Amino acid sequence: ANLGQALLAQGKAGAEIFLERLETHQKDYPDSVNNYVQSVQNRCIQLVVDAAEASRQRRLAIEEGSVNSALYNEEALYQLEQQQNPDKSLKILEKAQSFGATDVYTDSILGKVLEQLGRGPEASQLRMNLILEGTVDDVIFCDEIYYQLEKAEDLPKSIELLNLFEAKGGSQSWIERLRRKILTMQSQKNHGYVAEKKIFKWSLPHHG
User: Fold this and answer.
1) Are the beta carbons of 19 and 44 closer than 8 angstroms?
2) Chain segment 100-123, per-residue pLDDT in tens
3) How far apart are CA 197 and CA 112, in angstroms?
4) Mind listing the pLDDT tens digit for each residue in 183-196?
5) What CA dihedral angle connects 154, 157, 162 and 165, to 10 degrees?
6) How far apart are alpha carbons 91 and 70 in whole angstroms?
7) From residue 182, how far is each of 110, 121, 171 by CA, in Å?
8) Which of 72, 141, 178, 205 has its CA 20 to 30 A from that of 113?
């Protein structure tokens, strides 16, 4: 798997070399190809061949009972983003949960899937539970801050979460990006309030 990662980093040419070597290795040592090697193989196939074939390989491994969370995560993302099929993505994630093949990345994908299915409050609750349990995952925090800002329209909550994210040593680039977003929305909200006051004042009847 380490060799595969190194070759994969070289791009398409490296991926082709890995797949050729793996084909020979599989014939000689069929039992030595574990889930992690399969995950690297899948990414190489996606780079060299096409996304559909890579998806087919992942689904085969999943049907055979793989407990490699990377395979489930990659396939769930593929179904969500490339195929735009959140229902299928959810089924894959549920299968991952039943096999215990999950990690924090699985949870972040599940949150995105639930939002796509119109189940935003459930997605938010999932992320908030993880935050309360002490996660320091950047994606979980960022997704929840964006949700509070854009969907729940709860500016104080988003500021509270951003402060917590910063206190936990979150990604500085994301903190700056989120801070700018919050300040922009705060400014828009304040201007809207001022505009509303002016409109109301102007609409008052003139006496005398």
Assistant:
1) yes
2) 999 888 999 999 999 999 999 999
3) 38
4) 998 888 776 544 34
5) -130
6) 16
7) 25, 21, 16
8) 178
